């Protein structure tokens, strides 16, 4: 799944043409490799007053060994190219404080290194103590989303809202957004709540955990299985018998167990629970990745195409989740992760069935996240919403539509399965105990549904 | 309504089954069914007699054989006043025919009848494709010479490619073997277990021949005296060496050894009331007491193509107020070794039995030493519609030899269907 256009733009002839014709110039995005530091360059930190969140951010920056400064003037006039700009806006209590955003960013934004990171940390608006604070905090979203479109060369801008007293939960999320693991996650808004403090080895955050991945035989599912295993999890790969061979290839490499079944089968939830309990004593992570498309405009939609998509993409995750919760096969502190889609957010011509199912996945996250059945057991539920990801499936899209799909995002390129997998690994991390009820798009800030 | 009458299996006969395109390659379905039927008539001394009816069928049938069974009866040693009709329920045809005859006997509509089945994979019907067929039909309708020329001008080279029947499901276009391979994967049926079952089938059938069990169940045909597929000298090592033919890559487990080959053959079974049998100097071998059919939705993948018997059996057991363990013999048709093993595994599985069958407890294990004790389709071969008659006759005889007992018959069929029955004495 090579992006031939992007490869071409890296050639001397390509560079000349791109510059002179004003063509899209996608910067190759570095991806995380084992042993890489969280961030490989200087960080500039700014804040509106001294806050708990600010202290937590600075403690983390020290912890990961990042060289960081708090003075912007020095940077602006020097040759230093910051790899990340982190701004603590939790101290903004009224719209007057928004001035600080411009004052901090305008001088340094031009200096941001290629594939740089901008992270703004705010206070969850709904939990603000006053109307003034809520307005100011809500305003941050417009700032980060616009800045995401301005920064070039593979840089990303994200907003992290943290609840009062949840600053200790920031670590895993900041690590994710600072690192190349979030390469294709751009202009997203994440909400972090309170939760138990979990300290684990950031190199093996999932050690001792068991993860179920449906649709694990190929594409994004295979990348998810690989990534969760890399982070220390034992993986149960699920796929239909038709994909047995591909599944075996994936699982034999990472040493988990295989479970061949159709997730829509009436007894699939029971079978999954029984397999997990029998072979692994239970489950900690559930990734509902299995999904299908049967595209047709609604006027031409066949009943079986409608039903099949709803069954696989929405009803199966719903039934499996409910059973794993009811049967206690999912252990306390577990993490449930759905796979939605930008089609479920923005809608898509010819995908009424698919978009219905994917929007339903978002509904599943929003409905279950606050349920006492989950919160009392510290079980979290989140979803990723992939945009254009380079897979066997997208390789089959006709050339022109594929080219448009690839370019209509801030990073001007398609994402990779690993980008979705890394986001899921962050959700799965027990240290992300405060992350629940989130739907994070992995779309390079696609124009669709933005 | 009057009380129903007991249905006795009085006798059975078949011709040895031949491998496709071998000994019976020029024999038609009618030829083979006639041979099986005449053999039965000879052995039971029914020559010239009028029976209540003869019911049989073939899965692969020529269009000209639209009234096959009646034509076979007319050409047989039975009285020409014996009515007959054709049925077709894929591999369940033979057993379904016996159930139909049995039901009429039970209701007092007839006193005796013959059920049977035949199939040839060699003398297969080849049809012209739909386009050419339409052109030829239009030609027939054309009135003038010019019209006929116009119609004929529509013929294109591709139209001469004939349509040969395929062993594939029309709705999924997958062969039965490919469907079975998926079920084998889903249930984790190993190559070793399949080969072991195939091995036992050959050994058991070979033993049945050796002890003369088959002597009054067979009529030699075209010089063939034993089933051509039988390998009395096969070993687990030989079976283990065969290449897989269904499924892909390293997860494939199904070989030509643990899947039934395409075969030609025919069978027939005589059923009657006790009184009728006594009047004709015959005696019941066993009684057909219960039967059931079921079907599954394999098209959307909700269930495996060949898993319907797993549903039919518990329904029948409930009606008969029996458990799976209340049997002395189990005759599970070996379409593929994996089909038998997946069915048995499903019955042992608490989740399957609860969620799909709606049972509180699994049906449980069976004693494998009671399974297909005289061999089954893996060794004998499987001329689709003829298998039901082969199993009925052999199980009835086995129950009679045993001095009584109870046997379960389970046959899976194309289209996601299953036909099952109980024989008792």
TrEMBL record, chain A:
Pfam families: adh_short_C2. One of its GO terms (molecular function) is oxidoreductase activity, acting on the CH-OH group of donors, NAD or NADP as acceptor. Residues 209-387 form the Ketoreductase domain. InterPro entries: KR_dom, NAD(P)-bd_dom_sf, Sc_DH/Rdtase_CS, SDR_fam. Transmembrane segments: none annotated. Belongs to the short-chain dehydrogenases/reductases (SDR) family. NCBIfam families: PRK08261.1 (NF006110). PANTHER family: 3-OXOACYL-[ACYL-CARRIER-PROTEIN] REDUCTASE [NADH] (PTHR42760:SF78), SHORT-CHAIN DEHYDROGENASES/REDUCTASES FAMILY MEMBER (PTHR42760). This is 3-oxoacyl-[acyl-carrier protein] reductase. It comes from Kribbella antiqua.
Automatic annotation (TrEMBL), chain B:
SUPFAM superfamilies: Thiolase-like. The keyword Ribosomal protein does not apply. Keywords: Acyltransferase, Transferase. GO terms for cellular component: cytosol. InterPro entries: 3-ketoacyl-CoA_Thiolase, Thiolase, Thiolase-like, Thiolase_C, Thiolase_N. This is Acetyl-CoA C-acetyltransferase. One of its GO terms (molecular function) is acyltransferase activity, transferring groups other than amino-acyl groups. Gene3D superfamilies: 3.40.47.10. It holds the Pfam family Thiolase_N. PANTHER family: ACETYL-COA ACYLTRANSFERASE FADA2 (3-KETOACYL-COA THIOLASE) (BETA-KETOTHIOLASE)-RELATED. CDD domains: thiolase. Belongs to the thiolase-like superfamily. Thiolase family. Residues 7-273 form the Thiolase N-terminal domain. Residues 283-425 form the Thiolase C-terminal domain. The active site is at residues 91, 382, 412.
């Amino acid at each position: 799944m090579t992006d031939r256009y992007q490869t071409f733009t890296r050639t001397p002839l390509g560079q000349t043409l791109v510059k002179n014709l004003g063509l899209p110039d996608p910067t190759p995005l570095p991806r995380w490799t084992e042993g890489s530091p969280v961030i490989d360059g200087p960080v500039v930190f700014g804040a509106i007053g001294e806050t708990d969140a600010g202290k937590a951010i600075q403690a983390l920056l020290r912890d990961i060994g990042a060289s960081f400064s708090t003075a912007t003037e020095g940077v602006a006039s020097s040759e230093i190219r910051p790899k990340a700009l982190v701004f603590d806006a939790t101290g903004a209590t009224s719209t007057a404080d928004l001035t600080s955003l411009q004052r901090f960013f305008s001088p340094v934004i031009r200096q941001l290194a290629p594939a740089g990171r901008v992270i703004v940390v705010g206070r969850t608006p709904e939990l603000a103590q006053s109307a003034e604070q809520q307005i100011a905090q809500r305003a941050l979203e417009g700032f980060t989303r616009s800045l995401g479109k301005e920064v070039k060369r593979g840089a990303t801008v994200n907003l992290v809202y943290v609840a009062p007293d949840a600053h200790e939960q920031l670590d895993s999320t900041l690590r994710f957004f600072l690192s190349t693991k979030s390469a294709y996650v751009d202009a997203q808004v994440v909400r972090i709540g309170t939760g138990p403090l979990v300290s684990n080895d950031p190199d093996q955050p999932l050690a001792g955990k068991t993860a179920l991945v449906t649709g694990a035989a190929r594409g994004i599912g295979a990348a998810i299985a690989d990534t969760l295993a890399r982070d220390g999890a034992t993986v149960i790969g699920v796929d239909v018998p038709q994909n047995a061979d591909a599944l075996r290839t994936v699982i034999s490499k990472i040493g988990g167990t295989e479970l061949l079944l159709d997730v829509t089968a009436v007894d699939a939830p029971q079978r999954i629970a029984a397999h997990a309990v029998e072979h692994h004593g239970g489950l900690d992570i559930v990734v509902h990745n299995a999904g299908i498309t049967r595209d047709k405009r609604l006027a031409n939609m066949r009943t079986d195409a409608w039903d099949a998509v709803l069954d696989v993409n929405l009803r199966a995750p719903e039934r499996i989740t409910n059973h794993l919760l009811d049967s206690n096969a999912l252990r306390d502190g577990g993490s449930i992760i759905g796979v939605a889609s930008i089609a479920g957010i923005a809608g898509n011509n010819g995908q009424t069935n698919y978009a219905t199912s994917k929007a339903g996945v978002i509904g599943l996250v929003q409905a279950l996240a606050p349920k006492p059945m989950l919160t009392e057991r510290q079980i979290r539920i989140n979803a990723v919403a992939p945009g254009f990801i380079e897979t066997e499936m997208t390789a089959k899209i006709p050339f022109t539509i594929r080219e448009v799909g690839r370019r209509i995002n801030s990073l001007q390129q398609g994402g990779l399965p690993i980008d979705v997998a890394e986001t899921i690994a962050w959700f799965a991390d027990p240290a992300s105990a405060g992350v629940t009820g989130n739907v994070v798009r992995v779309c390079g800030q696609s124009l669709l549904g933005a | 309504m009057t009380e129903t009458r007991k249905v006795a299996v009085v006798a059975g006969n078949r011709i040895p089954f031949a491998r496709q395109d071998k000994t019976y390659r020029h024999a038609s379905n009618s030829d083979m069914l006639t041979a099986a039927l005449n053999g039965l008539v000879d052995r039971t001394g029914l020559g010239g007699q009028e029976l209540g009816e003869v019911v049989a069928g073939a899965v692969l049938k020529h269009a000209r054989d639209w009234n096959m069974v009646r034509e076979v009866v007319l050409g047989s040693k039975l009285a020409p006043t014996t009515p007959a009709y054709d049925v077709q329920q894929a591999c369940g045809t033979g057993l379904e025919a016996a159930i139909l005859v049995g039901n009429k006997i039970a209701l007092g509509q007839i006193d005796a009848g013959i059920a049977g089945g035949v199939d040839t994979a060699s003398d297969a019907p080849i049809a012209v494709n739909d386009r050419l067929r339409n052109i030829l039909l239009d030609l027939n309708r054309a009135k003038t010479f010019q019209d006929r020329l116009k119609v004929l001008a529509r013929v294109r080279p591709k139209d001469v490619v004939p349509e040969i029947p395929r062993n594939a499901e029309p709705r999924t276009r997958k062969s039965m073997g490919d469907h079975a391979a998926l079920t084998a994967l889903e249930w984790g049926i190993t190559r070793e277990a399949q080969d072991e079952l195939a091995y036992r089938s050959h050994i058991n059938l070979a033993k049945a021949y050796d002890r003369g069990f088959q002597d009054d169940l067979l009529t030699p045909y075209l010089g063939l005296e034993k089933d051509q597929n039988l390998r009395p000298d096969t070993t687990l090592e030989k079976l283990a060496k065969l290449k897989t033919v269904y499924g892909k890559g390293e997860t494939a487990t199904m070989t030509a050894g643990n899947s039934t080959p395409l075969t030609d053959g025919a069978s027939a079974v005589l059923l009657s009331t006790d009184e009728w049998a006594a009047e004709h100097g015959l005696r019941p071998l066993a009684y057909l007491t219960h039967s059931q059919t079921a079907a599954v939705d394999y098209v959307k993948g909700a269930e495996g193509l060949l898993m319907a018997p797993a549903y039919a059996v518990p329904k029948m057991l409930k009606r008969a107020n029996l458990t799976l363990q209340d049997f002395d013999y189990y005759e599970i048709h070996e379409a593929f070794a994996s089909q038998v093993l997946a069915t048995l595994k499903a019955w042992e599985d608490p989740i399957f039995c609860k969620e799909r069958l709606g049972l509180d407890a699994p049906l449980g294990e069976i004693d494998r030493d009671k399974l297909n004790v005289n061999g089954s389709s893996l060794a004998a071969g499987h001329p689709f519609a003829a298998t039901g008659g082969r199993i009925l006759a052999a199980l009835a005889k086995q129950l009679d030899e045993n001095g009584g007992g109870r046997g379960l018959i389970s046959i899976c069929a194309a289209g996601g269907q299953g036909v099952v029955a109980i024989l008792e004495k």
